[in-house]
Amino acid sequence: MSREPIVAGVTSTDADQFRLSGAWNFRDLAGLRTADGRTVRPGIVFRSSQLAELDDDGQAALLQLGITDVFDLRGDAEARHGGRDNLPDGVRLHVAPFHERRLDDATAPHETRLDSPGGGREYLSRAYAEFPLLAGAHAAIADIFDTVADTDNRVLIHCAAGKDRAGWVAATLLRAIGVTEDDIVADYLRSNDAIGTLRSRMSAQYGQAVNLSDDLLGVDEEYYRVAMDAVEHHYGSFEDYLGSLGLDSGAVGRLRGRLLD
């Protein structure tokens, strides 16, 4: 029998996701457990929505948390459309687009169905099946792993809503260091706490109610499983997938040493 995931006890969901004023879907990956009983250290890896509307209080919170590096997984046109990150001085921005899209493609995955609100589950399942194959994702994950492993860095990872691309990066990192499947999935599913916020923000942005399903605005364990199935199908194993990113056992060992108590 699997243990009850610890995630709910690490931080309060509603209060924590708005810790950075002007952003949402924020959390620290702290407290997640490995199969051998270790836990992820607090204050090293965070994830959130985009940071374009980070206000003075949000910037102050970012600095208070000691975050040194922010990875933006959006493409250039998408960042121009949604707004570039508003970071305080001293925080390094890494632009690490997941997709090699057309230069004029300004849509996040959850926005591409605005004209056709049906089929959100099928659409996101296809998107997740591609995540392990994207050259941009490979480069982003390798860079994030290397940055996190440096003992002086504290890293925040985000995309647009902080749920799909950021969710895959977080899941990949957590699985690499041996966090249990229960806790990986539980952290991943916490993005569903932000469905209402995302819907409200999109409605305000487009000046009308957004007719998109929770399947598209949220996440589902099925999406994560689709991506992991793609890893097994195309690479043979998760370890071989990491190897294709240039992450050998030594790199993973350094990451475990940095992240685990």
TrEMBL record:
Xref: Pfam families: Y_phosphatase3
Cross-referenced SUPFAM superfamilies: (Phosphotyrosine protein) phosphatases II
Transmembrane segments: none
Superkingdom of source: Bacteria
InterPro entries in alphabetical order: Prot-tyrosine_phosphatase-like, Tyr/Ser_Pase_IphP-type, Tyr_Pase_dom
One function term, GO molecular function aspect: phosphoprotein phosphatase activity
PROSITE patterns named among the record's database cross-references: TYR_PHOSPHATASE_2
Family: Belongs to the protein-tyrosine phosphatase family.
Cited PANTHER family: TYROSINE SPECIFIC PROTEIN PHOSPHATASES DOMAIN-CONTAINING PROTEIN, TYROSINE-PROTEIN PHOSPHATASE
Name assigned to this protein: Tyrosine-protein phosphatase
Organism: Antrihabitans stalactiti
